[in-house]
Specification:
Chains A, B: Keywords: Aminotransferase, Pyridoxal phosphate, Signal, Transferase. The structure is a homodimer. Chain A contains 19 helices and 14 strands. Chain A is α/β, with parallel strands linked by helices. The first copy, chain A, has 2 domains: 169 residues, Aspartate Aminotransferase, domain 1 (Alpha-Beta Complex); 240 residues, 3-Layer(aba) Sandwich (Aspartate Aminotransferase, domain 2). In chain A, helix 12 links the parallel strand 5 and strand 6. In chain A, helix 18 packs across helix 19.
């Protein structure tokens, strides 16, 4: 059993640092800092965030080395970043029309919409929409703080979008209940901040989950109450398991006040059916739990037998929209077919919230002044795109379709491909941008990992990175059943690259099993 | 003494709500919410943020009424929002060149920098810079998440800017120590999060202060340790007062770990001289306090006898840059001459920080993925503008100068104007965008305010709003000595409007004194 040099030096450097820090000699030499890992907020220190964790830091280091090292130093010529849902970073082209509108909205009128040559560069519907956006911004342009929740007209467009998507009566959704946010993350953070009043405040989260939840709950000092998704049933939800998790938490003195649902699933790629969603709503209603619905992948549903069914629609369908059920749904421009991550656009919709709590959230939003205007504009465009007959309609639709169809193909490439690797098992990916294969780890790896105090799937992920340049996130970063191992990968790089990735993962796994048998 | 109808109804509605909520009948009728003001995070509930507080909410309500009411319903035809430093919302035009670069950076190449007609609409240096920015973003464009701290090349430009501004040796500032942030606010929040490890964690803040500090300290559950600025000496800093405040806090068992300096001052408009800055650094070094330097108004210095002197430069000048002093400086695209608030661009530079703490801050930044890319681009442009000889240089400089000169004029209009009102006293405004006059309140107003439990300067600000349409922030929202009263106003509306505002404030004050004599 032999570790390659990089991995070895990395493990050694971690050990060295720990040893050095614990000798009193070292402590005397280094000048005392006021803010250290020991004196800082320990909740923040102990927070874990795997998506950009140790493996990714290592990948960035190798990426830098790659540029300065002679050819042949590594077995690969580039890092394949499949650790994060960041479509444009791995080749997805931005949709054209939203960028054209955005550019015109940013340009002062005389250099943009009113420039004599504007029609040479921009289609008529982009010009018209930029004009509308300038009106929505009260003529202040993109450089002014907006209303803390976002401009009223954008919020109204979001309401219209939700009503149309869910076939709700016109006027069912109130712009007062919409908060535009910097991506979905900042909305999630606001709600968790409000929900966590003491260490006993419990939030039910799926296992596996997207680590923004565990990280933020840790940071605000609440308690994670995990409920397991059923891997053998395609990561389905199981009400008995929800009841078990809740009962156990209550027995332990946790005051469970809320429930997180991620649908379509991250990292698990499932799309829940109507009954499952309705069951969750009933469960929340029965136990008086506030429901956080992370629905940022609502456009990313690839299987013909699957369909996105929003919690908002479910609430209406089973009559819980008027009953006082508290629901917040998050959406984002980062995912879907826009993939505009860097824009940090998004919103949350509150349903059934106490209006005094809504005022408190308004206050919190105000202390950050407002979310960024280009992100707000992108959100407005996402929920209200070109209409049939508009100059850009055909092009926009065809760009979106191409992205969608390719994503659907890639979803199959990875889940089918991984499933064919002996020792791997991968649920079918119905939605989102991820798959989450289970990987049997060789005994030698398990033993070695135990000895070094590193989760075995981190050992695996580091090895995969160093041998192939493929950067995945160890499954332990998302939570999983004891004894299960694996990783999360996106399928965002090109179809060709994903085929290569599957092959490289297979070959590496054979070598890894030999190395650690 | 007679309150006008709106104020009366506002006070009554608050009272009514309180009464209704306390009757058991009401409690039975309304369905129980899980998340209420009582069950939510109490630190968040108790947090105050005055800049967009009650008076502004009232202003927004009137603004809506204004649009739907017949002419003559109010004494004014528009609200003058001087509550917030939001230049573009009150008529300041954006600088042209940064918007042109931004638009081209957002456009896909074939529709932007490579479009055959691009030179008809855009100057050559904007096209060239957009090309560089696309390279800095690794060819991923503005739609991808960047490095959690911002792209390396942008951070390097920030380092160059700081080194040039402070006449530091090339290479003194390390891009690893730069974090690009959504405005300065999110950087401030990150640092305060790290600093507050228990309710005893104390942060020294000026009184008066910008309420993001008090609000965020409250939200994270730390302790504010106020030190008073000396109003009679133009809001100067006084070391004896710093020692007093620190000693008192220590006596009360507070573990004071840090010190906030806002220079140029918000809300106070002073610009500290070299000695004052150096004294603060020595004070922090002596007591091992981490220094948070809010330097977002560094370009907003209007008096010829004043000069911005950064903490970074002071540290070098007195040899504290190598001593281990921990300093973080915040900057933003929202202020200065850009005034690009909606962009949410900014950065913080860490000096002397423990590298393990820096890693923790990196982790925290990563959990938010990255700051928004248009904000990052605007920051890059702000720190590295057009150079002499570039196509846009002359125009860019002349636009900046026009904004600067007009701000300088308006600073005098308000501080001189308020000073001439009997009962008002206003320190000269040397910098920033605000002035903070002291106002003698009539006894009747003080008594009435006491009776209703409302700070008297809130009563005053609401009255000013309702009679004149001018929206200021009560001084109590920023902190002030017991018995002092007043308000903060920006001087961002046009010169003409600011002359009118001063007159209207004077006339209203006479009427207010009569009403409450």
């Amino acid at each position: 059993m032999k570790l390659n040099t990089l991995l070895q030096s990395w493990l050694l450097s971690s050990l060295t640092l720990n040893v050095a820090a614990s000798t009193s000699f070292f402590k005397e030499v280094v000048p005392t800092k006021r803010l250290t890992e020991d004196s800082m907020c320990q909740k923040l220190r102990n927070m874990e965030y795997a998506v950009r964790g140790k493996v990714v830091i290592k990948a960035d280091e190798i990426n830098t080395l790659l540029k300065s090292s002679p050819k042949g130093t590594f077995n690969f010529d580039h890092i394949v970043y499949t650790n994060i849902g960041n479509p444009h970073s791995v080749g997805q082209k931005p949709l054209t029309w939203p960028r054209q509108v955005l550019a015109l909205a940013d340009l002062p009128n005389e250099f943009g919409i009113d420039h004599p040559d504007v029609e040479k560069m921009f289609p008529s519907d982009a010009i018209a929409r930029a004009r509308q956006i300038k009106d929505a911004l009260d003529g202040h342009g993109t450089g002014a703080y907006t209303h803390s929740q976002g401009p009223l007209q954008f919020r109204q467009e979001i309401c219209d979008f939700i009503e149309e998507r869910d076939d709700l009566k016109k006027g069912s959704v109130d712009p007062k209940c919409i908060f535009m946010t910097n991506g979905a993350s900042s909305g999630i953070e606001m709600i968790l901040n409000a929900l966590i009043s003491s260490p006993k405040s419990g939030i039910m989260i799926p296992i596996p989950q997207y680590p923004i939840y565990s990280a933020t709950i840790d940071r605000f000092g609440g308690t994670q109450v995990g409920y397991y998704l059923d891997e053998n049933k395609g990561w389905d939800m199981n009400v008995a398991e929800l009841e078990r998790a809740l009962a156990q938490a209550k027995k332990e003195g946790v005051d469970v006040n809320s429930f997180v649902l991620i649908n379509p699933g991250n990292p698990t790629g499932q799309v829940l059916n109507k009954k499952a969603i309705q069951d969750i709503l009933k469960f929340c209603s029965k136990h008086n739990l506030l429901l956080l619905a992370d629905e940022v992948y609502q456009e990313n549903v690839y299987r013909e037998d699957a369909e996105f069914y929003s919690c908002r629609r479910a609430a209406r369908d089973i009559g819980l929209d008027q009953s006082g059920l508290e629901l917040v749904s998050f959406h984002s421009t980062s995912k879907g077919l826009y993939g505009e991550c860097g824009r940090r656009g998004g919103y949350m919709e509150l349903m059934g919230f106490d209006s005094a709590v809504r005022d408190q959230l308004y206050k919190l939003a105000s202390s950050h002044l407002c979310s960024n205007t280009p992100g707000q504009i992108m959100t407005s465009l996402m929920v209200n795109g070109p209409k049939k007959g508009d100059a850009s309609y055909e092009k926009h639709e065809s760009e979106k379709n191409a992205i969608f169809e390719s994503l659907a193909k890639r979803a199959s490439i990875v889940s089918d491909g991984f499933n064919k690797i002996p020792g791997f098992s991968c649920q079918t990916v119905a939605g989102s941008m991820y798959c989450f294969p289970r990987v049997e780890m060789p005994q030698g790896a398990i033993k070695y990992a135990k000895k070094t105090g590193m989760p075995v799937d981190t050992l695996y992920a580091v090895s995969l990175l160093e041998k192939t340049g493929i950067c995945v996130v160890p499954a332990s970063g998302f939570g999983q059943e004891e004894g299960r191992h694996g990783f999360r990968t996106t399928f965002l790089p090109s179809e060709e690259e994903m085929v290569r990735v599957v092959g490289a993962v297979r070959d590496h796994y054979t070598a890894f099993c030999n190395e650690y048998k």
